Amino acid sequence: xxxxxxxxxxRQLSALFAATAxxxxxxxxxxxxxxxxxPPAPSLTLSGVVARGAAVANASVTAxxxxxxxxxxxxxxxxxxxxxxxxxxxxxxxxxxTGGDLVSVAVGSGSTAxxxxxxxxxxxxxxxxxxxxxx
Length: 135
Prior knowledge:
Number of helices: 2
Mean pLDDT: 81
């Protein structure tokens, strides 16, 4: 069997990330984000929950997307929401908290995405990357 090309590997990673986003895209809070003094309409809003078995409160969540970056802090329930004035999917997400970092990805299209950041998404990304993504 010939070795996989980088394009084949990228397609496999994209398909797995999409499946992960669909499977992990539940949870979070239905409450709206607090209003601020007329910010520009975001081009992309990412939301989800940071959890390591239980919700991880006060985690620093960083999103690096195609064309933009953003940060947020998870609430007591682990929920986070990041509004990017410029940016589009795909995005990598990293939650930094006591106990170590967790990573995830958000893929798809549109102006909103749900991406939970959990030990499961950490394992999936590590498996696909062939190493611990926190390193």
